[in-house]
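From the pipeline queue, job 12 of 40. The input is one protein chain; the requested action is below.

Action: predict structure.
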Amino acid sequence: LGLCPLGNKHHPTALLQLAHVVDQCFKQCGRIDDLDECVQCCHEAVSLCSEGYSKRHTYLNNMALSLCYRFDYQGKSNDLNEAISLHEEVLHLQPVGQKYHDLSLDNLGGALHTCFHQHGDLDDLNRAISLRHEALMLCPPGNPHRDLMLHGLAIVLETRYVKLDASEDLNEAINLYRSCLQLRPHSHQLRPNTLRNLSLALCSHFMQTQKNEDVNRPFSQDPT
């Protein structure tokens, strides 16, 4: 950052790189000061990117994600509200046909899902589901983001099942978890998380239907 001071054309990029480094420090050490510095760097980088800047969506997205992380740890509503507004702007800058439209839909859906957990507004949850359905439609088989979209949609559908006891949401969530699991082989770092969520969803299905196959199936299919 010292080599790219304010006024240098690479200063916003240097800020973004510093934000990434201190974010990694936070994830490793858990120091909230590192997360605050990450947010501050992202804020400053965004302030230097004019409305027409071609990579503005990248800076906005990074700031939104850092605010979401801080909300997870501190629970400040202002952070979450700002993150949602930023994700909305990113989606506006990445319309249908743009490279990151699917991820923009998914990120906004995730932020709205978090907002639902805080305020309990079903409209937030329904919109999160709609956004993540759309994101999945844009990720056909073979797309590198497909496993993320399958898993993200499954999570929000399972949340609505818990809220409304809608069995069709649980059934769809289970199918999505299974599809996601097929895309996450034994070496995939997120496979254990998918196995856990699928197992919990099947346990919920067992409580609803009392079918033993719901309890036995995940373990018979995957002995690890």
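Job complete. The chain is about 75% helix and 0% strand.
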